[in-house]
Target: Formyl-CoA transferase
Amino acid sequence: MLPLTGLKVVELGHYIAAPFCTRLLADLGAEVIKVEPPGGDPFRGWGAKHNGHSVWFSVHGRNKLSVTLDLKSEEGKRRVKALCARADAVVENFRPGYLERIGLGPEVLHAANPNLIIARISGYGQDGPYRDKPAFGAIGEAMGGLRHLTANPGQSEYPPPRCGVSISDDLAGMYAALAIASACWGRERGNNAGKVLDLDLVSSVFSLMEGMLPEHGLFGWVRQPAGAAIPTAAPTNTYPCADGKWLCVAGNSDLIFARLMALIGRPELAADPRMATNGGRCEHAAELDAAIADWTRTLPAKEAEALLEGAEVPCSRLYDIADCATDPHFLARGMVQKVADPLLGEVLHPAPPFRFDGIAPAEMIRWPGRAAGADNDHVFHELLGEAR
Model:
């Protein structure tokens, strides 16, 4: 029994944020019915395809039932209301006001089910002066403060890069999943019936800005990009190796620092009074980084990593997906799963990041993403009881 077994969720989502939220809930055992337009979620057209089907959607739609409905049609609206009548929660990520315009706003859905939790994910939120502006994940990174920090110092001629994944959408989806679970918990205790939850991409990114807001409010500070280093801890940085790979090293406690300096043949730096504390090391981080880089440049990344691990210095090569797929720790923890996909054949899935005693990671992937509308008959006729 997965922990959310019995929870019923309707997804009126497309692209990333809402479907990511429901994927987490489905991985945890919830029954998720994904409502797609007749042509399928536009996300099915993203990324690589195999046998004519989206490879990415195998993960994106896993553990969900797929039905196709035209939400603007009377039949579509009727069926959505029927699905919500038997559900605990519904998740949507349309632009604010869209569901109201097509006749499926919160008042309508709560008329069908007064206890329904309605999670709404948007770019800027359901109110405020920007609520009607369009937004995708990159906008959440930009306005939420993250993209400002991803620049490399001294390279103002280049735009700060995105982090490489749709982090804004994923964050909003994770927060929505947490909010839904919290609202359902509260509802079971009589204090949270029929709530509307408001999540947005910008706020989700902004919530990760650590102590930057109080620092700005008190001192007027504006944190600036630090590249691969951590301004408050040294030495911590990413260093070049002889084979062109990069190695992340975190030697920023007193004992670890001493072991690191001994390993790279610079014990005099560990004995230097200037380097006796983390504060002093931060002041002289450039000197330490140069010494460490002089050492890493003489070795391939794997060899340098092994030596550092032998000295109990925290480190890691910068993994690409091929490294992740073959790493013995990933494999031992079941983080890479082989899944039989009827549409694609055998495909690799990232396992859910949750660990529950007695439940193997493979047991949490019950099926991969289905074809659009694959469950129309089951959902409409068996779950909703419509006559054939």
In short: The chain has two domains: 8-207+337-383, 236-323. The mean pLDDT is 96. The first strand starts at residue 8 and ends at 12.
